């Protein structure tokens, strides 16, 4: 298999670069005049070739390898009904929620990209969960999970942790 990108893959990559926001598989399929399944296949090939394309609840996103915001990992535990509260507290404090991770006893670390930075992002993520009937990763570990988050102001992160605890969400040190 050639390492060179096809014209279609170049077109997808350019669409992701110029969009500035995630694009769904259907969006990319329309841009390229192909099926969504072709997009999924091409994205997999581009990822294998090293392109930093992430699959998020809102669509595909070209991830910049350089972030101006320092990363932190929060270890939290709560029942599923507090997921919306948790995520809204974080984004309302200016915290960018990169991902969610759990440690599965058989599969090891399971990680899912979230890339949530606003109430709208949280609403769209939770709507997809509801519509698909999917289970939250934290359900696999009785509510214990990690979030990689980014923020520029450690004070805001501390405020968010206090707010999480007040809301009944355990933040583990």
Explain the overall architecture.
- By secondary structure, the protein is α+β, with helices and mostly antiparallel strands.
- 41% of the residues lie in helices and 25% in strands.
- The model has no long low-confidence stretch (mean pLDDT 89).
Question: Which helices and strands occur, and which strands form pairs?
Answer:
Blueprint: H1 7-19, H2 25-32, H3 36-48, E1 53-56, E2 59-62, E3 71-77, H4 83-92, E4 96-104, E5 108-116, H5 119-132, E6 144-150, H6 154-166, E7 170-172
Antiparallel strand pairs: 1-2, 3-6, 3-7, 4-5, 4-6
Helix pairs in contact: 2-3, 4-5, 4-6
Q: What's the structural domain tally? A: 2
What share of the residues lie within helices? 40-55%
Q: Which structural class do the helices and strands define?
A: alpha+beta
Strand order of the largest sheet: 5-4-6-3-7
Would you identify the CATH H-level superfamily of the largest domain? 3H domain
What is the C-alpha radius of gyration, as a whole number of Å?
Answer: 18 Å
Strand coverage percent:
15-25%
- Terminal CA distance reads 47 Å
The ordered string of helix (H) and strand (E) elements is HHHEEEHEEHEHE
| Number of helices, counting only DSSP H or I runs of 4 residues or more | 6
Text of the CATH class of the largest domain? Alpha Beta
């Amino acid at each position: 298999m050639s390492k060179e990108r096809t014209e279609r893959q170049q077109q997808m990559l350019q669409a992701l670069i110029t969009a500035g926001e995630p694009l769904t598989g259907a969006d990319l399929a329309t841009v390229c005049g192909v099926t969504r399944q072709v997009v999924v296949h091409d994205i997999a090939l581009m990822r294998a070739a090293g392109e930093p394309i992430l699959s998020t609840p809102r669509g595909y996103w070209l991830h910049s390898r350089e972030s101006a915001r320092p990363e932190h990992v929060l270890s939290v535990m709560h029942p599923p009904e507090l997921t919306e509260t948790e995520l809204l507290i974080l984004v309302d404090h200016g915290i960018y929620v990169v991902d969610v991770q759990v440690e599965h006893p058989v599969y090891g670390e399971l990680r899912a990209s979230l890339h949530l930075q606003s109430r709208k992002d949280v609403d769209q993520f939770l709507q997809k969960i509801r519509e698909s009937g999917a289970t939250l990763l934290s359900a696999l570990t009785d509510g214990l999970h990690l979030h990689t988050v980014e923020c520029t102001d450690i004070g805001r992160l501390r405020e968010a942790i206090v707010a999480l605890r007040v809301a009944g969400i355990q933040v583990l040190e």
